[in-house]
Write the structure tokens for this entry.
Amino acid sequence: MRMKFLSSVFAAMLFLPLMAVEFSIKTDKDMPVYKCGEAMKFTFSATENGVPVKSDICKAEFLFCGRKVLKSIPVDFSLGKPVDLDFTLDVPGFILVRLVDSKGVMVKNGKKAVYSGAAFEPEKIRKYYALPDDFITFWESGCKAVADNPVVLTKDEKRSNDKYTLYYVSVKSLNDETITGYLSVPVGEGKYPALVTVPGAGQGISGPAGYAASGVITLSMNVHKFPTADNSTEQARRYKEDIKTGTYAYRGAGDRDKYFFRSVYVAVNHAINYVAAMKEYDGKHMVFDGSSQGGGSALILAGLNKNITALAANVPALCDHGGFRAGRGSGWPQLFNRPDPDKYAPYFDAANFASLINVPALVSCGFLDTTCPPSTVYAAFNELKGEKVMIHVPLEGHTVSQIYQKEKVKFVRKHLGLK
């Protein structure tokens, strides 16, 4: 009987999950923002079920603004207790800390890399690229070239409802390219606020923005040159087919007139002007809301189009393309990976557009973001001339954080004039 009991216990143990060592890096304060030269501390731990354990010796790599490794220091977990390492930066910027093993491979908890980060006077970070002398005329000429092109609306009978009428939007742009998306207009007489969105990088949208049923005109534009589908499955198929030729964000790189995003932004700018001229628009509230590629687009189009009255940009891409020249990271799509970025990238740098913006702005940066490093976001944020708020997210990377989402909802509703 006892043998049977022990056998049952042993069998049950076979199905218990093995406890893996979990690594962590913590800063000495919850909001790790410091003065340049101020001493701070990173604490490295190896635990099982929250209890410190012995583990292999690793190395802590300290990267300046997510790019250059400033130092690499051994972290000895063999004693079975946390390890403290002091650190400071003498210049404005962010430090990203990661753990690597003896072979130089990044240490992970499951599939998640182990990171930590801190900021040192980020309000003093400055963009690398200056505003080109012909920046304004370059964009004005592009916008003028499409100004007489019709904004073609096709009613979506199937998805229009008693709250709003939905239209498929098509705008002929430069280089004989067409940019498409969706426009929703509230049902009923009246004047309404407007919300403009461009999605993050990827397949794009296939329907209206979230405020469509809330008495708001919504303009949601894709960046792709293929027609926007009316469902996500078909949109994904078209996108997959489109990128067989390579990442879209590098197309035309090297030539400012042919670079992918030029025809996109002059077309979206034209569509915004169309909305601004609609009899249904209230003429006072037009908010641009976007994340990542959409966040960078919010900065670019708010700089380009004075009809935008406020913007929300979460972890914005397309910022500080020249950051690599200063030893920092550059924002997505990392144009330094393509030849001669200095010749054309300044014209598509959201940080340069930010210097032209005077409207209220809500911006967010993730201290652990390696796609749009926080230094690139701050390079743009510090150029904004109007009322502005930065949401720090020290424990997350390239994502929409809960704290940002909460603040964004309040910000967007306020600037749309909604209760």
